[in-house]
Amino acid sequence: MATLLAIEALRRSGEAKYSHELSEGRKRLLALQTDSGAWETGALDASLLTRKIIGHFEESNLAWDNGTVGKLNRSGRAFVEIAKQLIEQGGSENAKMAIVSLVHGLEFQLYSSLSSPDISANIFRKGGQQTIGARDAMSMLREYLIGKGELGTDSTLKFQSQISLMISTRDSVVHKNASVSRSDISHWIKEVESFANLYLRR
Fold first, then answer.
1. DSSP 8-state code for residue 41
2. Residue 14 DSSP symbol
3. Can you tell me whether residue 143 is helix, strand or coil?
4. Which in 45, 64, 183, 194 has the greatest CB count within 10 A?
5. Where is pLDDT greater, at 54 or 191?
6. Torsion on CA atoms 136, 141, 143, 145, rounded to nearest 10
């Protein structure tokens, strides 16, 4: 966490003289990434720390090499597993955290697939300050598959409508503190995993 705070402070300073320190700090972060794709520390929840570090790389508009793309995919799958664990624990607050984790898991897997050498899509907008989001990432994947002739021009991705509803529900949870049912999340977990198996693990 200390490494992340230090390089984030350097990045926000905007000073070019710190470019070497930023580069070394980012190398240190990547070296600390576990084989599961997450970052872990005894002082902070692993899922929160992982989201913050991935967010730093996304906001910095940095290119990911193949090894990092693979780890990003594993991070996405780990977030799906976290959602499963939260659902098993029960409770309305755990359900809210589960849907947030599940959408993060889908997004990371989409970004990993779109950033792979086969596709090399730009997953950033607003001058690299923000990622495109899961809906736009699915649309980008759909256009790629249409271009390859693997999907008809009038076809949609399987599970796309269900996943869009999941994302809308996540938005309501985050912005309006809405409730979400355990059964709905359980269905969405299965649909996200089916979607990933069909399109993102190629």
1. B
2. T
3. helix
4. 64
5. 191
6. -170
